[in-house]
Structures are given as C-alpha cells and as structure tokens.
Amino acid sequence: MKTIIKLPLLFILCFTVCCTQEYNVEAEISGIGNDTVYVENYLLSSIDTDPILDTVYAEGGRFFYNMPVKEPMISYITPKTAEYTRLNNSVYRPGHKAITLILEADDKVKVSGSLQPNTLNYSVKGSEISEAYSNHRNKFLDFEIAKTKIELSLDSLMHRNAGNEAISALFKKRKSISADIRAEQMNFVKQNNDSQLSAFYISRQPL
Fold first, then answer.
1. Tens digit of pLDDT for each residue in 126-175?
2. Rounded to whole angstroms, what are the CA distances from 191 to 102, 130, 187?
3. 3-class SS at 126?
4. Hey, how many other C-beta atoms are within 10 angstroms of the C-beta on 81?
5. What is the pTM of this model?
6. What's the pLDDT tens digit per position in 181-190?
7. Which residues of 93-178 form beta strands (DSSP E)?
8. Residue 76 falls in which region: left (phi positive, over 0), alpha (psi -120 to 50) or beta
C-alpha cells in the first residue's frame, strides 16, 4: 500500500523538476523539424583548444539547451540537416548554416530563425554581443557562402587527385575571401569602437 502511495508522489516530483528546469538557450528554427543539433563550445580564454562537444534534439524546430557557461565562451550550433558530408565521409559544418553565440555566465538567450537552402538566418535576444553578431553577420554572409562553395570544390578536386594548379588556385581564392571577411569585421570595429563585438573581432584577427 505504501508503494502505491509513493508512485504518484514520485511522478509529481519528476514532473515538477522537468517543468522548472531552466535553460539559458531557447531556440525556434523553422525548417529543421525534428533534428539532431550539434553544439561546439569554446572558452574564449583558450579558443584554439579542442571544443567541448554536445548534442541536443529539436522537436518541431524547437530546442532548449543549458549551456555550461562559467566564463565567456563562443558556441557554434548546427542542425544535422545543415551539414555536408565530404567525399571521404568526414563532416563539414559551414558557418553560414550555424548559429553563433558569444555568451557570458548570466546570459539567457532566445534564438529565432529559419534554415534556408543556402543559409541559416537567425536573430538573438538576451545577449548584447550575440545580438550584434547576428545582425552584423549579414554583411559577410555572402563571403561565407562563397567559402563553402570553394570547400566543396576542393573536396571534389582532391578526391579525384586533380592537378596541383587547380587546387592551389582554390586555396588562394579561399584565403582571399577570408581576408574579405576580416576586412568587413575590422570595418565594424572602426565604426563601433565601444562595442563588445569589436573587442571580440580584434581578438580573432591573425597576428
């Protein structure tokens, strides 16, 4: 009889915990449906080290995530449907089909957007720097798309052992596009000296 009484109590407690669970990232992205979502977290203090990897699951385009933010970090969030598989079966996740969040410990963000054939468009609320980035990325989004086209072309050429001249030309073109992206970011810095995003862009410039 005691067991019968305890079961409803256990259910109520579990239900209460689930309903009061707090998340610091809430997202609704049309076009991804029920999908696996990959998360790559980098601490800004050691951004060149291996990322902390995680996986969440979207239902009807919505997903929630409790980001382990104890110090400033950057996270790249990519739906599985947005990634490419190279001819050698390795995975390529392009930046223009990912959500980029730059977060501090107390941030709680809401992301809304849509996955299109060529890009993932989104906006962010709840983090000044992430919101600024989501707005400014539109300035260099076409460059990011062009870089992906080059990556896929390189994949094809290298898979069939094409000549070095053709491969080298694409490497040079990719390097030039990366320089265009950095130039756009530095243009933002010149116009927004007191922005947190400017400090982030400066920190990511090559020495």
1. 999 999 999 999 999 999 999 999 999 999 999 988 889 999 999 999 99
2. 20, 18, 7
3. coil
4. 15
5. 0.85
6. 999 999 999 9
7. 99-103, 109-115, 120-125
8. beta
